Amino acid sequence: MSTEETNQETSQQETSQQEPSQQEGPQSVKGPRIDKGLVIVNTGSGKGKTTAAMGLLFRAWGRDMKVIMLQFIKHSTANFGEQRAAKKIGVEMRAMGDGFTWRSKDIEQTADLARAHWEDCKEVIASGGYDVVVLDEFTYPMHYGWIPVEDVIEVLKARPHMQHVVITGRNAPEALVEYADLVTEMKVVKHPYQSGIKAQPGVEF
After folding, report:
1. Residue 61 CA to chain centroid, in angstroms?
2. Domain limits at 84?
3. Residue of 82, 90, 7 whose CA lies nearest to 49
4. Considering only CA atoms, which of 174, 156, 135, 123 is closest in space to residue 53?
């Protein structure tokens, strides 16, 4: 073994023997730390987009942050597990849809509801009264052309500096993906539906 190879192997061994705190992790920050409100997008065809957003919401709530979830597609009378939990712990959650878009009997009414809900959301965001705002299944009104993504980005640009906004749903517009600080794409690897297993309480709803 050459001297260069020996030195390289020794360096690698020293690095592996460092304490975990001395090693750079995947989230290590270079230079000055920047504190800013984030725009977070959970998209993709896989399960877990809303679930992940609710986990973040719960974490922020635990930090005594003011949080709210605004749901675009779920019916205004929805009473799934998340609505029940929110009611029990006092987290604000508003639904103003008429059910899933592909089941809508009147697609124009669904679009009108989404646009009206967006007007409410703009007020919530601009008010500065919330540290975390989740816009659940909000990609769909943008994807279907009911709400211009340009309008959404302008509202996000004008929001309070330290406010975090989480947007969930499939088919996130490219312009939103480009603007966001954190984008995660959920991918289906395996799903119980494929084995004929129905949606389970506490897991899907």
Report:
1. 15
2. 33-195
3. 82
4. 135
Distance in angstroms (rounded) separating the CA atoms of residues 45 and 143: 14
Taking the complete model, does pTM exceed 0.85, yes or no? Answer: no
Is residue 8 assigned to a domain? no
- CB contact at 8 A, 170 and 48: no
- Cβ atoms of residues 53 and 42 within 8 Å: yes
Alpha helices in 47-204 (DSSP H): 49-62, 81-89, 107-127, 139-143, 149-157, 174-179
Domains in the chain, number: 1
Residue 198: which region, alpha, beta or left (left: phi > 0; alpha: psi -120 to 50)? beta
E strand or H helix that includes residue 13: helix 3-16
Angle at 205 between CA 90 and CA 196, to 5 degrees: 170
Does the residue 23 lie in any domain?
no
Strands 182-186 and 92-97: unpaired
Q: If residue 42 lies in a helix (H) or strand (E), which one and from where to where?
A: strand 39-44
| Torsional class of 6: left (φ above 0), alpha (ψ -120 to 50), beta (otherwise) | alpha
Q: What is the pLDDT of residues 68-104, one digit of tens each?
A: 999 998 888 889 899 999 999 999 999 888 776 556 6
The CATH number given to whatever domain includes residue 67 is 3.40.50.300
Q: Which amino acid is at 81?
A: G
Kindly state the tokens that stand for 29: 């920050």
